[in-house]
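To: structure subgroup
Subject: Chain for Friday's discussion

All,

I'm putting the inputs and outputs inline so they're searchable in the archive.
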Amino acid sequence: AITSDSALDGALVGADDRIVRHETIPFSAAPVRWYEYPWAFITFAWSLMRCILLFWQTNPCLIINTGGAIGLPAACAARMLGIPFELHELN
């Protein structure tokens, strides 16, 4: 599971014993104000590199993305590595 480092995400992932590996990435929200764009770019690039390394190490056959800004680095990494990914809307 790839999540943000928020307390809620940690509690949700920690409550599920089926999750084998849990990684957090810093990019969790798209920027709203113009001065947030540089930091968003840096955290996105760092998150993308972490996802690429994770996928390279674990060699998944499919990435399931539940949407939101947190899923962008994982989807981009999957696309770059040629790993199929699916987007599931939970509503």
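Points worth raising on Friday:
The longest helix spans residues 37-58.
The longest strand covers residues 63-65.

D.
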